[in-house]
Design a protein that fits this description.
Elements lengths: L16 H8 L7 H13 L3 E2 L1 H8 L4 H16 L7 E2 L6 E2 L5 E6 L2 E6 L1 H17 L20 H10 L1 H15 L11 H5 L5 E5 L13 E5 L1 H7 L9 H16 L1
Antiparallel strand pairs: 1-5, 2-3, 4-5, 6-7
């Protein structure tokens, strides 16, 4: 028997599946980080979970998911969609999670549960994009190509490898800039060593170091060895630039 849940009361309006689907199709409105959270809840967590639980899967600080909802609501309002303000009684500040999720407390955690209509619309949206061979591309005007993909860190990597739109775009841009494909950390070239055009796409997650500005999702070219190394315990909580600087020093030592 399903547990009866005591949902947190809110005054937000309900959107239909068609309304959510239309919003998902709007350019540069749904934050890729919010889409990542929804994807994680749907396919990793059976539709519900806390921000900290999502963070444990994706590796992102959980605060980013709150900010992603603020960004999305503001973007959609600018497009003309009506989102009734959900004001907190004590602080008088606006609440944003309630537009996308039902909420309740469980084991001292506040749980987000994807609203049924959004769940259905998101499933349809993902399905249609996968069937067309088209990936979710964000902010093409600034050439920042991003996609909603698998969420566990290793799984993100493998889905990037399968995503021909994202990987091929990144490889074309890299070749235009550098003339050929090679590892950005150690300069290894599969073409020179094995006669094949191959490289792995490293999915760089935002990193927060004090007051640093958060970096967006990006792809960089790494050989298999460097890719495994950068995801290791030694490096996975540091900016990728630290790994690149380390590799540069190692190469200088080797050459001498």
């Amino acid at each position: 028997m399903k547990e009866a849940l005591n949902y947190y009361p809110t005054n937000v309006q309900s959107f239909t599946v068609d309304e959510w689907f239309a919003m998902l199709q709007e350019d540069n409105c749904f934050s890729p980080i919010l889409m990542e959270a929804i994807y994680t809840l749907m396919f990793e967590m059976d539709g519900s979970g806390s921000a900290k639980q999502i963070s444990e899967i994706t590796g992102r600080p959980y605060q980013t998911y709150n900010r992603s909802m603020v960004e999305t609501v503001k973007n959609l309002r600018n497009k003309g969609y009506i989102f009734v303000e959900d004001i907190r009684k004590r602080s008088k500040k606006e609440r944003y999670w309630s537009h996308f999720y039902n909420g309740y407390y469980k084991d001292k955690l506040f749980i987000w549960e994807i609203k049924d209509s959004l769940h259905t619309a998101f499933t349809k949206f993902i399905s249609e994009n996968e069937e067309s061979g088209f990936s979710i591309v964000y902010n093409e005007k600034t050439n920042k190509v991003e996609a909603v993909e698998g969420i566990r860190r290793q799984r993100i990597h493998y889905q990037v490898e399968r995503n021909s739109v994202i990987v091929n775009y990144a490889k074309r841009e890299f070749v235009k800039k550098n003339g050929s494909l090679f590892c950005e950390a150690c300069n290894f070239s599969f073409k020179k060593s094995y006669g094949i055009d191959f490289i792995e796409g490293h999915h760089v997650l935002p990193l927060y170091m004090g007051e640093r500005i958060t970096k967006g999702i990006d792809l960089m070219m790494l050989c298999a060895n460097c890719h495994r190394a950068v995801h290791s315990k030694k490096w996975n909580d540091k900016p990728v630039d630290c790994f690149l600087d380390y590799m540069k020093k190692q190469m200088i030592k080797t050459n001498f």
